[in-house]
Amino acid sequence: MKFVVSSTELLSHLSVVSRVISSKNTLPILDNFLFNLNGNDLEITASDLETTLTTTIKLENVTNDGQVAIPYRILVDTLKEFPEQPLTFDVNQDTLAIKLVSDNGEFNIVGQPAEDFPAKAVVDEAEKMTVKVPAVALLNGITKTIFATADDEMRPVMNGILLEYSAEALTFVASDAHKLVRYKRLDVQADQEKSFILPKKPAGLLKNILGKGNAEVLVEFDSKNAQFTLDQYTLVCRLVEGVYPNYNSVIPDNNPNKVTIDRLDFYNSLRRVAPFTNQASNLVKLSLKGNQIVVSAQDLDFSISAHENLQCQYDGDDMEIGFKSVFLIEILANISASDVILSLSDPSRAGLLFPAVNDNSEEDVLMLLMPMMVSA
Questions:
Q1: Model confidence pLDDT, tens digit, residues 277-313
Q2: Which CATH superfamily is domain 2-116 in?
């Protein structure tokens, strides 16, 4: 097994797939990349058992097909130090000795048997549903929701992103019980209604590779696994088992008090006031009256406080409501519109935030945040 590959191209692909590799692998073989040379296609795979990511590089200078597992750390660390140049990999299939030849030297690595590498999960042909999704739709859906996922060992379904397919839209939902995000893509429809919960790790991996010039993604899934096929990458992951809570039941349908405000002004004001919140509660108070919103915080333990007045358009009753500042800042950071609408009912009920005007007519973004008790 022998082939020649560009050092920078190989490093670029390895840097992406190595993100799958866990620092706490239970199987030593998972600390390796699986190299599979078949014709002019070099297929490189990394896995943590739950998620498997494969990339393909087209080669021109190839001698003999073959497979070998190569330790990922020494290979990536070595490639980082090479300038752009052709590298020759010469693998002895009997001894698994790997000779890496550069312009100026030779490096010797010992590989592992390819057959020890676990087989990737397969989506059941009889059960699977197949949908083609624009890469930008999948990227935006993950980007807008992944920050709202939970880290809750008791409720694993909350630790992923719900993808719901229907005849009307593809809906992404994430929640940690304090905040909830619902992102709809109206330009993606399916023949039947089905859903799955995508774990956070593969969602993050997809977010990283979706921005690499892909136009469309083939999504195939059954009740246990999902496969995402892109131009140069294929990701297969085990899905989160369980039923996602009925998120629609917590979204209020009657919030008559509406604030329209410049998103960036609101965001920056919260960033300035947040250091003055109590470290335990992180509470920031919003006082709404007329066309003005007062953003305030205080920490009585340290005798510090701050407030800022912001102009807004407010249609509703005078109100004081509290939110956890870090959550409100996160939500505003993940809305791309210049103006946002904060829709409220009363200080004890969830507030809704969404763009005043959607930049994309195919998007429907809604973010929910539970309030905090404001002390008198």
A1: 999 999 999 999 999 999 999 999 999 999 999 999 9
A2: DNA Polymerase III, subunit A, domain 2 (3.10.150.10)
